Amino acid sequence: MATTTGSGWIDPAADTFEYLGNGDSATVAIQYSYLPSWLSYLVDQSKARAAGRELFDAVYDTWSKLPQDQRPRLFVAGEGLGSFGGETAFSGEYDLRNRTAGSLFAGPPNFNTLFREFSDHRDAASPEIEPVYKDGRTVRFTDDPATGIPPQDRAWDGTRVLYLMHPSDPIVWWSPSLALSEPDWIGQEPGSDVLEEMVWLPVVTFWEVPGGELRPGRRGRPARSESVPNGHRGRTCRVPAPRRPRCRPPSAARRAATR
After folding, report:
1. Diameter of the chain by CA atoms?
2. Edge-to-edge strands of the sheet including 160-164?
3. Phi–psi pair at 158, nearest 5 degrees
4. Per-residue b or e along 132-171, where b marks 16 or more CB atoms closer than 10 Å to that residue's CB
5. Helix (H/G/I), strand (E/B), else coil: 224
6. CB-based burial of residue 39 (10 Å sphere; 0-12 exposed, 13-18 middle, 19+ buried)?
7. d(CA 160, CA 158)
8. Domain segments of the chain: what residues?
9. Taking the CB of residue 202, how many other CB atoms lie within 10 A of it?
10. Using one digit for the tens of pLDDT, what is the confidence trace for 81-103?
11. Per-residue pLDDT tens for 173-182?
């Protein structure tokens, strides 16, 4: 189940899911607005919330009525505002673990309820740009699955919930509190694509962080994440297929299919 951005867009990299499952999969999504993602982000959050809940409830209701031995595994995904909508169907870590087989949320906006809960209550000594939540038993965070997902020394059994986010993605780090409060990530070791010289300044940082995302693009519209290379800003989902199965527990059949 994929929760879309405002206009119903889903990253074409979602096709990777079918590749990893040898085509034995189906994806369902709905369009809930005619606005582009950046406008939906500002004025259409309530529709994203309602769409995420109603879509999951409808799918889950049908799924739960099937005989247990005929139920397919149920995965949830969302990018950007889609991750916000996808989260709203769940109350927390246990709910995600009990009602899904896995979830992938890419480029989560800073106001995502569960994202903020997991990040704010991260384990001591884990950085905000790559937090560890409850020893990584269900929920984990990374900016590059190919380099390992912390904590690598702990088993990741059962349902996997993965947040994929880049240190330079404005939507992940911008919040109104930046105007008057210094975030933890400013004083920690910066991410791979963030300048070490970056400091927090009252009001200034509030405008500096989203500046890259809202700079003018073609025909006066905001620049899209597609204008930067993979692995930076909002280019969270365009990674090669071998890097993408981390939210799905490995199986012998899938390992053979991806060789």
Report:
1. 58
2. 2-3, 75-79, 102-106, 160-164, 139-142
3. 70, -150
4. bbeebbbbbbbbebeeebbeeeeebeebbbbbbbbbbbbb
5. coil
6. middle
7. 6
8. 2-171+226-257
9. 11
10. 889 999 999 999 999 999 999 99
11. 999 999 999 9
